[in-house]
Amino acid sequence: MVVLVKLLGLVLLGASAFGQDQATRKADRVISIVAERFAFNPSKITVKQGELIEFVLTSDDTDHGFRIPSAGIDVAIPQSSKGEARVRFVAKEKGTFAFECSRPCGAGHNLMRGTIVVK
Ligand SMILES: [Cu+2]
After folding, report:
1. Domain span at 51
2. Total of domains in the chain
3. How far, in Å, from the CA of 71 to the mean position of ligand 1?
């Protein structure tokens, strides 16, 4: 029964290409991304449609942000040694989706971009 409710919950998340899943089930994939002036590493991430993805985001220098505009996701990445941010989502649609830094972090801030490819 619990499983059924959860499945319905995911279906009801709507038109966004990404469904947010706050549930406690284990992520299908955990992907670590390191932010630093002025890049994300890795900056191209390929996942499978339907997977529950968890990003673990850390910084090697100052405060950064992680935003996926098409998913309505925007979290702060704390500065180096001040912890991490975690974001979970379900890759519902195939396609290529941009992510970017969302905290002004210096001259190359606008270059801090990457893509998530859902296959
Ligand atoms: Cu930035």
Report:
1. 2-118
2. 1
3. 19
